[in-house]
Design brief:
Blueprint: H1 10-18, E1 48-49, E2 54-55, H2 61-72, E3 76-84, H3 87-97, E4 114-123, E5 126-135, H4 143-157, E6 163-167, H5 173-183, H6 198-211, H7 219-230, H8 236-246, E7 250-251, E8 268-269
Parallel strand pairs: 5-6
Antiparallel strand pairs: 1-2, 3-4, 4-5, 7-8
Helix pairs in contact: 2-5, 3-4, 5-8, 6-8, 7-8
């Protein structure tokens, strides 16, 4: 199907169901709505996620920022974006609440409602689900949005699944910007290394070097020196440091506004090198 806004029909809904949209887990999950299926007020994106084992479909900036925070959390074990709600149930709930069920624009087709994220959490060995919808704060008082959220919240309450709103104004944006910066070190889809396992090899060397280091120069200065010692191209040292941060081998304060300039003493090397993988695209 081509990109852009689609006019929804019952036939198209059946086609998407046949494709397996809204089903599966982990790397096999297919979101109900994919990037470019609909018009978006924000930027759509499809970042690869090692945690999810696939590219995820994010339909706005608020969704993207929320996703980066969720993916980073070690309590989160699974993320399903644009998760569809059972349409028969949402129609029943809307009728019971006396709320008009949403319909696709310009049609008489009831909307397959979705929640932005259905998230699997593991808290000290106990697993639970939580449903999240992402909103800009200025949209929170819009009456029609409130009505649709009532349907969604009632839907998940019937399944004993908490439903929570995430507002863009409440997100820890400095932390999220740093997570994005760290993710920039990941191997991109289709990218070829200088030789197989090059990043993994250099990551092991850097992690062992940092584990016994008493240096306290800024991270970027250390990385430039590392490049010189290892015969790497400019920028590759900092990229390897980002990989170590992504793997939690090199830990830091994500509230720092300039990690590249932070002194090495503000980082901690856990040296779990056996668990290292140069995570990235497929």
């Amino acid at each position: 199907m081509g990109r852009g806004q689609k006019k929804m029909t019952e036939a198209l809904i059946k086609e998407w169901q046949a494709e397996g949209r809204g089903r599966g887990e982990g790397g096999h999950y297919k979101p109900w709505l994919e990037a470019f299926d609909i018009s978006s007020l924000g930027r759509v994106s499809r970042p690869y996620s090692a945690k999810c084992g696939r590219s995820v479909h994010l339909l706005s900036d608020v969704e993207a920022n929320t996703f980066y925070a969720l993916e980073w959390s070690q309590r989160v074990t699974g993320i399903r974006e644009e998760y569809p709600l059972d349409r028969e149930l949402t129609l029943e709930i809307a009728a019971a609440l006396g709320i008009a069920h949403p319909y696709y624009p310009g049609t008489k087709v009831p909307t397959v409602m979705t929640v932005d994220f259905l998230v699997d959490f593991n808290d000290q060995g106990e697993t639970r689900l939580e449903a999240l919808d992402c909103k800009r704060t200025e949209d929170s008082d819009e009456p029609r949005q409130i009505e649709k959220l009532q349907i969604t919240r009632t839907y998940f309450a019937g399944m004993d699944v908490p439903h929570r709103l995430v507002f863009h104004s409440e997100l820890p944006m400095q932390k999220i910007r740093n997570i994005e910066w760290i993710r920039g070190g990941m191997v991109k889809t289709g990218e070829e290394e200088r030789y197989a396992g090059a990043l993994h090899e250099q990551s092991l060397i850097m992690s062992h070097d940092l584990a016994g280091s008493t240096r306290n120069q800024p991270l970027q200065e250390y990385c430039r020196n590392f490049e010189h010692r290892q015969g790497l191209n400019p920028g590759e040292g900092l990229r390897i440091a980002k990989l170590l941060m992504y793997e939690r081998i090199l830990t830091c304060d994500l509230g720092n506004p300039d990690l590249a300039s932070a002194p090495l003493a503000s980082f901690r090397c856990t040296l779990k090198a056996d668990n290292l993988r140069a995570a990235g695209g497929r």
